[in-house]
């Protein structure tokens, strides 16, 4: 199985085939790669490491997670049900997002490896900050501060110690409404749930990356990151949608991960699949962010711009039978 990595030239008028790698610098230093393309950041930094774990429930450090299962069961089990409401939010308040540590908070406001990306600084949860929970909806807002600098937000279900919420095999889904306007760069993605010291040969799955100037498509990506850049692998797919539909209403974006395949979904319908790389040796956790730029201009980006998130759900599954399990969400999920 060969997954190719696509190195991209500067922005062109065509959306087809774009691969904005370099967003996720897997290291605790430097603290951010602002005003750089994702590829520039990625070439400077690498991913986490390796661990055999199958299922992790929130606030449980990875070293104490359940070991990989060999059961033939295809049953999906709730791992993390985040509806951003009083029933599912820890402490029933915005304190379910902390700056850097999992427990009791379910989310952190920065990548565990301590790096921002894009042209907006990711801010801590604080009054007047980018996060707001109201009527069961999380809003993440990008705006200019008093100094005229862009700020925005990210949530990650993990911290630098490896504590967090995730699963090796199962189904991940978010229901979101994209912000309108060029220069916006929202994403729902998965990263390896490991301590930051373990940062070689790790997977990343981008369930959706949306570029605001391309209103009739988004992209899905599978990455494998190594400290040795020559070993990086990846593949991306442009997913066509009705023009403007992602900013006009909420849609679900999901991915099913099994030993055999990674299957991407939009509105519960499969849209793309890839063979599962052998580097998937442990759990993945979800992240949601509203970044700006990715090499595209932000001079016409609306101020403010807001990403709306209805929920993030994670369901775990055992490895299943040799022939694999049916891909997709549980029938009773919201």
Oligomer: single chain
Order of helices and strands: EHEEEEEEEEEEEEEEEEHEEEEE
Biggest sheet layout: 10 strands, mixed
Roughly how many Å apart are the termini? 35 Å
- Which stretches are poorly predicted, pLDDT < 50 over at least 5 residues? 1-22, 24-68
Mean pLDDT: 81
Looking at the structure, what is the overall shape? Answer: globular
CATH fold-type name: Jelly Rolls
How many domains is the backbone divided into?
A: 1
- How many beta-strand segments? 22
3D structure, described in words:
By secondary structure, the chain is mainly beta. It has one domain: Jelly Rolls (Sandwich), CATH 2.60.120.200. It is 3% helix and 39% strand. The chain has helices at residues 38-44, 245-248, and strands at residues 32-34, 55-61, 77-82, 97-98, 107-108, 116-118, 121-122, 131-134, 137-144, 150-152, 154-156, 163-167, 170-177, 184-192, 202-209, 217-225, 233-240, 251-257, 261-266, 269-275, 284-292, 305-316. Strands 3, 7, 8, 9, 10, 13, 18, 19, 20 and 22 form a ten-stranded mixed sheet that branches. The protein has a six-stranded antiparallel sheet with strand order 11-21-14-15-16-17, with no helix packed on it. The longest helix has 7 residues, at 38-44. The radius of gyration is 18 Å and the shape is globular. Mean pLDDT is 81; it is low at 1-22 and 24-68.
């Amino acid at each position: 199985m060969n997954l190719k990595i696509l190195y991209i030239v500067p922005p062109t008028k065509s959306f087809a085939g774009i691969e904005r790698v370099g967003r996720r610098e897997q290291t605790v230093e430097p603290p951010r790669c602002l005003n750089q393309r994702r590829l520039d950041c990625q070439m400077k930094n690498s991913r986490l490491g390796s661990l055999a774990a199958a299922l992790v429930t929130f606030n449980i450090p990875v070293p104490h997670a359940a070991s990989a299962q060999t059961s033939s069961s295809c049953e999906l089990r709730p791992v993390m049900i985040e509806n951003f409401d009083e029933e599912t939010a820890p402490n029933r308040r915005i304190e379910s997002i902390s700056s850097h540590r999992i427990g009791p908070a379910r989310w952190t406001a920065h990548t565990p490896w301590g790096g921002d990306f894009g042209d907006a600084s990711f801010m801590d949860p604080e009054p007047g900050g980018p996060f707001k929970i109201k009527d069961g909806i999380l809003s993440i807002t990008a705006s200019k501060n008093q100094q005229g600098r862009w700020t925005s937000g990210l949530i990650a279900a993990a911290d630098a110690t490896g504590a967090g919420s995730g699963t090796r095999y199962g189904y991940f889904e978010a229901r979101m409404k994209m912000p309108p306007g060029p220069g916006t760069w929202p994403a729902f993605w998965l990263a390896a749930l490991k301590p930051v010291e373990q940062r070689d040969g790790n997977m990343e799955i981008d369930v959706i990356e949306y570029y605001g100037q391309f209103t009739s498509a988004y992209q899905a990506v599978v990455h494998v990151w190594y400290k040795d850049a020559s070993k990086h692998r990846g593949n991306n797919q442009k997913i066509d949608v009705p023009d403007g539909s992602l900013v006009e209403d909420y849609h679900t974006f999901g991915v099913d991960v099994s030993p055999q395949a990674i299957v991407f979904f939009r509105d519960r319908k499969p849209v793309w699949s890839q063979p599962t790389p052998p580097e998937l040796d442990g759990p993945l956790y979800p992240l949601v962010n509203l970044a700006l730029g990715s090499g595209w201009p932000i001079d016409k980006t609306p101020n403010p711009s807001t990403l709306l998130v209805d929920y993030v759900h994670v369901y775990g599954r055992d490895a299943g039978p040799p022939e694999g399990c049916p891909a997709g969400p549980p029938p009773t999920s919201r």
